[in-house]
Task: inverse folding
C-alpha cells in the first residue's frame, strides 16, 4: 500500500494506491484492496465515505470489468465518488490483475458530499462536490478520431463544470489518459482548440484500453468553486 498525505487546493487529502494480491481473481483482488484501504483510512480518522476519486487499473479487459463491478458495489451510497478505469498490463509490478488508486478528502467543518448523477444514471457519476472542491468522473467518447473525441468530451465537461457552479478558470488539475496509439502532442493541440484557459496542473498517461473498444482518450477534471 502506497500512502501520501497531501495539502492541495487548500484541503487535506489522503492518496492510497495498491495492487491486488496474486492468487485471487479480479473481483476478489478488488474487494481485498478496498478492505485494506478502509483500514488505512481509519488510521487517519476517515472512511471510504470520504473517497472523492478512484482510478481502477486492469491487466486486461476481463480484469477491468470484474474489478469495476466490485468497485461500484463497494463505493455506493455515502461512498459514491468520481471514477475512471483503464487497461494497462505494464501498470503492474506484480502478477496482480487489478490495481486501485483512491483519493480521500478530509471534509471541511460542516461540509457534506453532494453527488450529481448522469441522466439517465450510469456506472460513473457525473461529478461530486465536497466543501469547495468539484470532482468529475472521467469523460470519454466513442467517435472515429482523437480530434472528434476530444471536442466531444470537452463540449460535455464545460457545461458540467457550469452545472456544478464552477468553470475551467477554476480547474486545479486536468488528468488525461491517452491510448498508446496516439501522441500527447496531438492531444494538447486538440485540447487547446476548445480550452484556452491556463490550467495550473496537467498530467498525462498512456494506456492500452478503456471500458469499451474505440475510445482513445479519457479526461478527468478536479476544480474548485469560485470564492
Result:
Amino acid at each position: 500500500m502506497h500512502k501520501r498525505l497531501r495539502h492541495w487546493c487548500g484541503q487535506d487529502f489522503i492518496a492510497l494506491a495498491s495492487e491486488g494480491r496474486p492468487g485471487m481473481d479480479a473481483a476478489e483482488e478488488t474487494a481485498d484492496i478496498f478492505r485494506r484501504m478502509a483500514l488505512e483510512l481509519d488510521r487517519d480518522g476517515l472512511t471510504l465515505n470520504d473517497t472523492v476519486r478512484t482510478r481502477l487499473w486492469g491487466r486486461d479487459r476481463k480484469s477491468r470489468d470484474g474489478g469495476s463491478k466490485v468497485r461500484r458495489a463497494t463505493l455506493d451510497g455515502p461512498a459514491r465518488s468520481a471514477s475512471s478505469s483503464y487497461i494497462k498490463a505494464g501498470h503492474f509490478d506484480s502478477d496482480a490483475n487489478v490495481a486501485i488508486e483512491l483519493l480521500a478528502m478530509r471534509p471541511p467543518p460542516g461540509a457534506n458530499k453532494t453527488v450529481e448523477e448522469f441522466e439517465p444514471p450510469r456506472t460513473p457519476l457525473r461529478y461530486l462536490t465536497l466543501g469547495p472542491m468539484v470532482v468529475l468522473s472521467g469523460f470519454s467518447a466513442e467517435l472515429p478520431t482523437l480530434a472528434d473525441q476530444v471536442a466531444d468530451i470537452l463540449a460535455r465537461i464545460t457545461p458540467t463544470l457550469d452545472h456544478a457552479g464552477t468553470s475551467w478558470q477554476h480547474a486545479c488539475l486536468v488528468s488525461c489518459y491517452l491510448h498508446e496509439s496516439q501522441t500527447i502532442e496531438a492531444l494538447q493541440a486538440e485540447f487547446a482548440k476548445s480550452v484556452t484557459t491556463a490550467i495550473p496542473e496537467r498530467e498525462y498517461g498512456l494506456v492500452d484500453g478503456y471500458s469499451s473498444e474505440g475510445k482513445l482518450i479519457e479526461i478527468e477534471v478536479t476544480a474548485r468553486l469560485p470564492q
Remarks:
- The two ends are 35 Å apart (CA to CA).
- The longest helix spans residues 146-164.
